[in-house]
Amino acid sequence: MRRRSTRVRAPVNIRESSYGYWSSGSAFVWVAAGACMGMGNIVRLPALMGLYGGWVFLLAYFVALLLLGVPLLVTEWALGRWMRDEGTAGFGRLAQAAGASARWRALGGIALVGAAMVLSYYSVVAGWSLGFTFRAAAGNLYGDAAVAAQRFLDLAQDPERSLAWHTLFMVSTCVIVAQGFREGMERAARYFVPTAFVVMLLIGAAAFHYGDPQAAMQYVFTGDASRFGWRGALEALQQAFYTLALGFGAMLTLGGYLPASQRLGRLGLVVVLLDTLFSLLSGFVLLCFVLRAGVTPAPGLSMLFQTLPQALPEGWAGIAIGTPFYLVLFIVTLLSAAALLEPLTHYLMQRLRLTRIFAAVAAAVVVWYLGLGSLLSFNALSDLRLLGQNFFEWMQLLSSTLIAPTFAILMCYVVVHLPRELNEAIAGGSMGWMRIGHFLLRYPVRLSLLAIIVYALGVFDWFERLWS
């Protein structure tokens, strides 16, 4: 992939950003944390802890974050800060500076395609959270298991209502991004992320009365190494990678607005800490109600849209708990969506010389149209399958399972083969941290990413069945 060239290399120093910078390091932390605090974090981490040994899994997850997640996160920020450009042009300039193949530009395109794909189906699912917010406020959520399941199916299988919520969510995301990365994303994150923590703490206080906190604590933190196994180790790696919104160019683009003097390692640790705290807090609150209802938790969307409604108390208490919970779910998904739409918007601004407003609208429209396939997979196109997978499942498989980790593997390859002086320039004031990260990116991170892909494709499960 790397090829020496006789061309004159481009300057390797970090350029000034033509679009400006984040107002402060703390402001950037709120934005990056908001990009990580998506819907999957709320349901996956606590449920995985319950399945794979409680604090044993949590310890493995922290190790995976330090050895896999943080190095990739800091690397994306550092590359984005050095490029100060959209992905394809940025990797092209990186290849020129390294005297390498111009095919490196394809990395930026891979990330953009992945971002569009994941945001297209993410918007459909996030739209349901907005719909459930209004239903909770109207007191229409409570019911037994059959009623709760049917209520969700009625929404998912109704193309008109799902289309309305999908459209409203994409419009909300577009409004944030169109205002600019400081006026829109930074301002939203400054308010939304602290609000999400405060509201979840208040719901947690209510959970001590209406839920079963003792059962939730026991489910999550009881250590049992016998339940960990090889599957627990791979799940920890997988969760550490996907929880930080890596592989889609979002962190690459957000890093492009960082000043050269900013120390990235410290920022990475703070973002990881905030993301993990929110995952544990929100997941614990969710488990308090779910376990009180006597339902076995599962790390999927069914726990949010089918299990939780039947676990909420009746009357005003259910309204007072359910409404803010789904509202928090909506605002954290909105921040994640804005981070995914930003690289697409930035690409159109750079390549087509569009204003930010027109670029954001154009990117949102493309994603909205792509999301129609996922939306119709639950109703009109539910019987249309390729190799047993519908459109929604193919979007998940291609974007999250293949594109994101493949981009990360190729990015690792590029970084470890850069000339020393270029690596030092990219690192800026974080050279000490980058030396550690460079070592991790060379083998441990790449092998972990390869294991994530193989595991997600079911290869390990096939070998297990063959062995048994």
Question: Short description, anyone?
Answer:
Helices cover 76% and strands 0% of the residues. The chain has 468 residues and is an all-alpha fold.
Q: What does this protein structure show overall?
A:
This protein is mainly alpha-helical. The protein has one domain (25-467): Hydantoin permease, CATH 1.10.4160. The protein has 20 helices and no strands. Helix 1 crosses helix 8 and helix 3 (55-83) crosses helix 12. The radius of gyration is 22 Å and the shape is globular.
**Class based on secondary structure composition and strand pairing:** mainly alpha
Percentage of residues assigned to helices: over 70%
- For the termini, the CA-CA separation is 40 Å
Give the strand content. Answer: under 5%
The CATH topology is: Hydantoin permease
Main sheet makeup: none
Number of continuous helical runs: 20
Query: Shape from CA axes?
Result: globular
- Oligomeric state of the chains in view: single chain
Main CATH class: Mainly Alpha
Q: Tally the beta strands.
A: 0
CATH-level-2 architecture: Orthogonal Bundle
Count of domains:
1
Low-confidence stretches: 1-8
Secondary-structure element pattern, one letter each: HHHHHHHHHHHHHHHHHHHH
Average pLDDT, rounded to a whole number, is 89
CA-based gyration radius: 22 Å
